[in-house]
Amino acid sequence: MNNLEETIKLTVESLGASLYDIVTTRENDRNIFRIYVTAKGGISLDKCAEISRMISPILDVNEPMSGVYNLEVSSPGIERKLKTLDHYKASIGENIKVKDIATETYKGELLSVEDGNITIKTEFGEEVISFDSVLSGSTYFEW
Q1: H/E element holding 51?
Q2: Distance (Å, rounded) from C-alpha 37 to C-alpha 60?
Q3: Most CB atoms within 10 A, among 53, 98, 105, 114?
Q4: What's the CATH number for 3-74?
């Protein structure tokens, strides 16, 4: 984690939320510096606005993306990418889908995250997958 990320993380936590991820992207010829935040019980629009107001001056000093960007602060949403073991731990009990290096796809309820392994209850039984073999993962919502 670089200094800017660490500063953003501490600022978000000081406002009663958790930093989920920071994504830089380009949409419609605009640079987007997107900060995803979570909180127990969900994140409100007011909380996103408050976090944005507190982070904006930090970005004025440590400009990301060569200083040409739009700042967005939002919830990662109901269906979100899982990148770190902490993301998986925070998603225990939710439906996830995971693709491993053998390009097998596993779908089901995330039961546990222990010793670098994730356990998913699939329609075929429990599958234990090493986090090191995961190519991609995300939560999903069944309508």
Answers
A1: helix 45-61
A2: 20
A3: 98
A4: 3.30.300.70
